[in-house]
Structure formats: C-alpha cells, structure tokens
Design goal:
10 strands; 9 helices; 10-stranded mixed sheet; D-Maltodextrin-Binding Protein, domain 2; 2 domains; alpha/beta
Length: 266
C-alpha cells in the first residue's frame, strides 16, 4: 500500500469525539427499542473486555470512560450490566460462543461481523506505529518500509483494513499492551502498533518514560470504537437496537458529554 497524501491531525491525547458523525436512529426505532427494554427491565447484560487504558481498564474509575458510556447507554434502555476484564483473545471467544453478551470496545472488520453484531460507533481512536526515541525510522510511505522491521501488536486486534491485509513477515501478537511495550523497550521488537492514547498511558503506568515513545508518521488510521454483541445469545438484535437507542438518548440528554468531562476527555 502506498500512502500519497498525509493529513496529520493533532488531537487531544490522539482522540476525537465523533458524535457529529453518528447515524442517529429514527425516532420510531428509538421508541420501539425503549418499549422493548421496558419489557425486560430485569435483564442484566454480561460484558467483557481487556485492559486498554485510558479507554477501559479494571484499574480505572467505573472501568474507564468507554465502559461508563456503554453502561449508561444500556441503563437508558432499561438494562443493568456487569463487566469483567480478561485477555482480549478470551474476551472475543467468550462473546463469540455466547458465554458473555457484549465485548466493550472493538474496531469493525468483515470477519468479526460474521460472529458479532456491531453497535453505532461510540468514540474514535488514533492508531499508529511506535518506536523508542533514537530509532532510525521517522516516516514511512508504504507498509513495505515497515515490513523491514520486527513489529508487534496486541494479539487478535484489528488495526486497519489495509494493515491487516498486508502480509507482514515478522509481526508478533502479544497478550497485553504492557507485554508489547516491554518487548519494544528490551529490543525484542523494533516497532509496536497501538492507539496513541493507550501506548502513552500504559507506558506511563509501567514506569517507562512515555516521552521516549514516539509515533512514526503518518498515523495508520483513525478507527471507530463500537461494542460487539454475540450472535449466539437470545434477542441479540434487540439488545443491539436497545443499546443504540440508549446511546442516542445519552447524547441528547447530556450524559455522554458529562462522562467525557468527568474523565477529562474534553
């Protein structure tokens, strides 16, 4: 893949709110979802994800601001929810087979869409390639350039359609972001692919000097975060639609913005 035009956006913590780009549900659909949720008020939705600070992590208040947004959206549609943290691989598998209902926080891919229903996008995340200060590479024009180095990423994550389709010869998947950053710090890999905010946050939490972790230009992509609902649970599409309706509702009543402000994301 050749990249001919680069438009670098300097975003607070590498992020941008995408509310204005959401496809708002028709009012009839929203009201139908609320009617459905009212009939099953007692249902508790089981959710899972991995530690991916600052978006979601068991060490964060309310599990992080994305977790808070998801819980508030479900609550607005009459659902209680519980959230457990595990490895990303395990989270995907538990929801895929129907042991859990929802994966909190995921990028879209056609392959995943065979097993999960996707919600409306709830946030936007800037993803790029990171190096330690002093590494020779500062800029790349194609994935052929990156393919000359040992790369790492979180195992079984989607990066971007073009990146995921490229046949990298030396790409290692890690069970946790901290494992990948440790490998980068110790020289086991040359470059690590991650969200800007996550790479910086996890590096800081590990005691690494986050300022010595640099993103090579250009960023790979700005990805939208969704929740994924298992296709192997009862009323899966109703749960998806109810979540979407609740998400629209918390934007309209100011809850979404309040959560972002409470977590210093605005």
């Amino acid at each position: 893949m050749n990249i001919s035009t680069f438009q670098i956006k300097f975003l607070k913590q590498g992020l941008r709110i995408i509310t204005s780009r959401l496809k708002v549900l028709p009012l009839v659909s929203v009201m139908s979802c609320f009617a459905l949720s009212s009939a099953i008020q007692a249902q508790t939705v089981s959710m899972t994800t991995t530690n991916w600070a600052p978006f979601y992590a068991e060490s964060l208040d309310q599990g992080g601001f994305i977790s808070a947004i998801v819980s508030a959206s479900l609550k607005a549609s009459g659902y209680d929810s519980s959230l457990e943290f595990t490895s990303w691989k395990e989270a995907l598998e538990q929801v895929k087979v129907g042991e859990k209902d929802i994966v909190v926080g995921a990028y879209f891919s056609e392959e995943r869409a065979q097993h999960y229903y996707y919600s409306l996008p709830i946030y936007s995340v800037l993803t790029g390639v990171f190096k330690k200060t002093g590494h020779e590479l500062n800029f790349y024009t194609s994935f052929d350039t990156l393919n000359q180095y040992k790369l790492g990423k979180l195992d079984q994550t989607v990066v971007a359609k073009s990146f995921d389709a490229y046949p990298f010869k030396n790409l290692t998947g890690f069970n946790a972001v901290s494992d990948g950053l440790t490998a980068l710090d110790q020289g086991e890999i040359d470059l690590y692919v991650e969200s800007y905010a996550v790479a910086k946050q996890v590096a800081s939490d590990m005691g690494m000097d986050a300022d010595k972790l640099e993103m090579i230009q250009p960023p790979i992509e700005e990805n939208e975060l969704h929740i994924m609902i298992s296709k192997n649970i009862a009323n899966a599409t109703q749960l998806r639609d109810a979540f979407n309706a609740g998400f629209v509702s918390i934007q309209a009543d100011g809850t979404y913005e309040k959560i972002l402000k409470d977590f210093n994301q605005m």
